[in-house]
Write a structure and sequence with these properties.
2 copies of one chain form a homodimer. Chain A is α+β, with helices and mostly antiparallel strands. Chain A has 2 domains: about 150 residues, Jelly Rolls, CATH 2.60.120.10; about 80 residues, Arc Repressor Mutant, subunit A, CATH 1.10.10.10. Chain A has 7 helices and 11 strands. A 4-stranded antiparallel beta sheet of chain A has the order 1-8-3-6. Chain A has a 4-stranded antiparallel beta sheet with strand order 2-7-4-5. In chain A, β4 and β5 form a beta hairpin. Chain A is elongated. The structure holds a DNA duplex.
DNA sequence: CGCGGCTTTGATGTTCATCAAGTAAAGTGG
DNA sequence: CCACTTTACTTGATGAACATCAAAGCCGCG
């Protein structure tokens, strides 16, 4: 799927409108609508390349994306998952010239890119906007750090259970869902190795805690999974 | 050492003055000076208690503090170290009612506490201030996440070497320094166990990579330590 | 003095990474 | 469309890294 620009999408109806952009004046909103670029990308496509220079803010509207970084030794780490209405790639956005993480779609996604300068102008001129942005920024950073610390508390089985619950409860809000990432990516997200992630999933399946059919996962034993997440 | 308030300390000469408070008008600065409370705490004293309600911003002026959280099972995790001119306890400050981490002095420290509402008023009325705050916030969050990911890349020896280099290069800028935290705290910071941290330090000493005298650490073999940090 | 917390070392077992090898699935080029 | 390559997935076996348990020394503090 190639990237396309669709200027008909309206900022007035955007999910961000009700959060960080709620305080914009009609004029500011109009400027935003005109200036922003709207993009569709397919699963696996790169939205932002690690190391490239920061020229805009990325607002994920639909889909799911991973925040990944590739280390000198070639090993990839996934810092977190960005969800719709997440203001992604933000971590270093005000303090660095380049993106420190790649943002890669893990589901077909839609996002808007807004020029860096326009947002900074809004920050300088619109106090309520600044406040909303700080709040958003704060909650996203907090979640990112909190999740990493939560993962560190657990070992293999607990981490895998944590991730399954995360997708079921936080992302899809359903006990049956299509796992959007590969086993390798789960491993990169929880700081373990593929083989051990696979082994653990197989074990959960054998113990009838989950059912795996292709990329679909169904949680069969919510209680036991939760127990493993907390104590395993 | 008990907490004391010393209203004579001037905001005009504060380190923060040159960063996030640089854009304040004389009047705003005066209001800040009058309103803020200045505190001195000794090593080990709690600056902010995890779970307490957020009523102000903490600006660390002198000293060093740890950002820690205690988990339900009693195990403590250290998310990071706050340095002077750090705007600490910020992670959840705009998005939560309570502090999610305790802030505890690990050296005799001085900090200012500014009323939450006053800062929010500044955010709403002073665009340049908002911008500075976002930049500061961004760089601190980014560093926090980046450090955790760096640690995850390494195992025991690499992590311990990383922390020693961190204190020597980033904090004290000297190859000889007083380690401000216990072995247990190092363990909590790098997600390992005390015994293994102790073993590793003993090993480094035996191999003449570092010298340990009481709480003083001297790096004897910078090259070897750096190698372990990168490849060990 | 005695208690608790921090430090240290050794011994032992668990958890996990690594290596190996095979299957399945998915893309590639003739 | 089929051989071919590549990538993801899977299981087992082995060893390395680390947690845990145990015991003793140290120090500060009531």
């Amino acid at each position: 799927m190639t990237e396309s620009i669709c200027s008909s999408s309206s900022c007035a109806q955007c999910g961000f409108r009700s959060s960080i952009f709620s305080s914009l004046t009609d004029e500011q909103l109009k400027e935003l609508t005109v200036q922003k670029s709207f993009h569709k990308v397919g699963k696996g496509e790169v939205i932002v390349e690690q190391g490239s220079s920061i020229n805009g803010f990325i607002f994920l509207r639909v889909g799911l994306a991973k925040l990944a970084r590739i280390n000198p030794d070639g090993r990839e780490q996934i810092a977190g998952i960005a969800t719709p209405n997440d203001f992604v790639g933000l971590l270093s956005i005000f303090s660095s010239k380049t993106y420190k993480y790649s943002i890669i779609a893990i589901e077909d996604s839609e996002y808007c890119q807004v020029d860096y300068q326009l947002v900074m102008d809004l920050v300088e001129t619109n106090g309520k906007f600044s406040k909303s942005l700080l709040e958003k920024f704060s909650s996203v950073s907090d979640l990112l750090v909190g999740t990493r610390l939560e993962l560190e508390l657990r070992q293999l089985r607990g981490r895998v259970a944590f991730i399954i619950c995360y997708f079921a409860n936080e992302i899809y809000k359903d006990k049956t869902f299509n796992l959007p990432i590969s086993r390798k990516e789960i491993a990169e997200l929880i700081d373990m190795r593929v083989e051990n992630v696979v082994r653990t999933l197989s074990e959960f399946r054998r113990d009838k805690i989950i059912k795996i059919e292709g990329t679909t996962i169904e949680i069969l034993d919510q209680e036991k999974l939760k127990w493993i997440k907390m104590h395993g």
